[in-house]
Amino acid sequence: MQKIFESITVGLMFIIMFSTLLFAASQTEISNQTPDSISQEASSGWWPMFHNNLSHEGVSPANGPTTNQTLWSYTTSGRIWSSPAVTDGLLFVGSFDKNMYALDATKGTLAWNFLTGGQIYTSPAVSDGIVYFGSNDHQVYALSANNGNLVWNFTTGKEVQSNPAVANGIVYVGSNDHNLYALNSTNGALIWSYPTGSTVISSPAVDNGAVFFGSYDRKVYALDATNGQLLWNYITDSYVESSPAVSKGIVYIGSYDNHTYALDESTGEQLWNFPETNDLCIQSSPAVANGVVYIGSYDSHVYALNAITGNEIWNYKCGGSVFSSPAIANNSIIVTCFDNKTYALDAATGNLIWTYQTGGNLYSSVATICGVAYFGSYDKSIYAIGASTTTTPSTTTNYTYIIVAVIVVLIVIAAVALVLTRRRKQKQ
Description:
Methylamine Dehydrogenase, Chain H, 4-stranded antiparallel β-sheet
């Protein structure tokens, strides 16, 4: 009976040892997928509108592409000015061939397209399964993101080249008929409109119950988002086509008067302005992150400015004018340029990381998610560049579990040795 008991004891010890090793291995594997990394990967898969969010800060929560590898390209029948939006694995972008396209964001294959009556300059905004955009046929459209079916359309007085923003069931969008419109996102019904003195191409930003935008009447406007009442306006010295970015109580925006402005979000009071010294206009819209404002200029430079003081931190000269708006992806800035190239710059220093050559001028601003940059070109193509979107689990080892497993194994070995020693002594 004692021999049987000892045999069972030895067997159980080996089972314990084996189970402990399996547990340590499994915990090491689980530690490679922390909740933070999983949530970051999920949240980084969206860029649903121009400059990513309602405040137009232009920031991606994920790293930008580290290489200029072509993942795919898709050719339309017209030039592309529109900046892409990416949600739920689909990329949406307009073309001068009058179509709004939905492409598989991973493969670049066509999901659907919708033909309008005019060229499409605007960047779509996607909200609650609906794609909103404007066209040169004077219409604002709402389509089903799944199949491209028309949900509604609203007629303005002229071309719609402003990028829409959707907040709290309201679509805000400008028109060349001088108005900013607020439309019901469900049925397209007019809620209110606000007349400015000229063309509204600037794309509205929404923050703290207010809508901010510029006009060719030289003004920057702040309106009550609910009723369209004027809160304040600020007069620059030329057209304002740039779209505002709102961050930490400050509205940042460029003007054709060669200046970038920082305005108090509540009052419109000027906090600072940065003069671009080459007497060339600023159509680019600013991006803001980590206390730095990034903006392009027709003088071919990308500028990094202190967000509080407006002092220049660095500048980088591209090979042509910069109309597009920079995108921020952690430690890099990605911007397109008139020299047909897309540039990736170090956010801290402005040093060049890589460039990517296309066959046409670049007006389209970059959307960047999951290590991939998406943008359109005047060569009629939409591009996806960067690393593969397939992620490899981290190989970080959890040494705590391994150390515990080793200790348990040593104890088991010692116990087995003790049992076997006692058995030998009893035989003697």
